[in-house]
Design goal:
single chain; 244 residues; alpha/beta; Spore Coat Polysaccharide Biosynthesis Protein SpsA, Chain A; 10 helices; 11 strands; 40% helix; globular
């Protein structure tokens, strides 16, 4: 079935976990929110925030989810919503209300500065973009069980390739430049990358096993494993994560 191509080619997917931080982002990055060529899908965790966002943006979608999976849970559910309704864009911008402003600006500014590119260009291969300082290659032994589980359930064709990135003690091969991941989960991806996400077999299950509330990356976590996996998907398709 041919997907419904929106009039706008670009969508902003934004999780609002903190309405005060959202207001800061609104002031710092106005072109995300006042450009009629960008559709916006908000998610939030409280009825109060939902009402505020609906008043501010009456023509945009505001989804209410429980506080589960930090920004990853709402992202997965929003992607599932797109897939169910067969809606497609050329580019998808994923941001959230990261409380550390210094880190937040490092992650968002390169995307914001390239906004015109995403509004006017189209790529024919799998692409995901992240801030250069936070597109990393590092050990993932802590999250190895969850990462492997996600791949096994949803992307079994990549199991061998993924295991080739790992040594016997379940860490990244020190001689490899892969796999890459984007720390902070603020990034952009294109429609070809979105097609990969359609392979997720059961969004409801993946959401159900995410941790509730805020958790730290100090043991194998479902939340943080998706942070790694979302970057790895590009490498597993023989593409680099593009550093902005």
């Amino acid at each position: 079935m041919v997907g419904i191509k929106r009039k706008n080619k670009l969508v902003l997917i934004m999780h609002v976990g903190n309405i005060n931080v959202f207001n800061e982002i609104l002031l710092d990055y106005p072109k995300f929110f006042n450009n009629h060529n960008i559709d916006i899908y908000f998610s939030c965790n409280t009825v109060e925030d939902k009402l505020i966002l609906e008043r501010m943006f009456p023509n945009e979608k505001v989804l209410l989810y429980k506080n589960k999976g930090m920004d990853i849970g709402p992202f997965l559910l929003t992607i599932n919503d797109f897939i169910k309704r067969n809606v497609n864009y050329d580019y998808y911008i994923k941001i959230h209300t990261k409380s550390d402003k210094i880190w937040r600006d490092i992650l968002i500014k390169p995307i914001y500065n390239k906004l015109n590119y995403f509004l006017t260009k189209k790529e024919d291969t799998v692409k995901i973009y992240g801030a250069s300082g936070y597109t990393l290659v590092s050990q993932f032994s802590i999250n190895y069980p969850h990462v492997l589980g996600i791949i096994n359930r949803n992307f079994p064709e990549y199991i061998i390739q993924f295991l080739n990135y790992c040594s016997e003690n379940n860490t990244i091969n020190c001689n490899s430049n892969h796999p890459e991941w984007i720390a902070g989960t603020i990034f952009v991806f294109n429609d070809k990358y979105f097609d990969l996400l359609k392979n997720i077999k059961d969004f409801d299950y993946e959401y159900s096993i995410l941790e509730e509330g805020h958790v730290f990356n100090d043991q194998s976590r479902a939340n943080h494993s998706w942070e790694y996996l979302l970057g790895y998907l590009s490498n597993l398709n023989n593409q680099e994560v593009i550093k902005l």
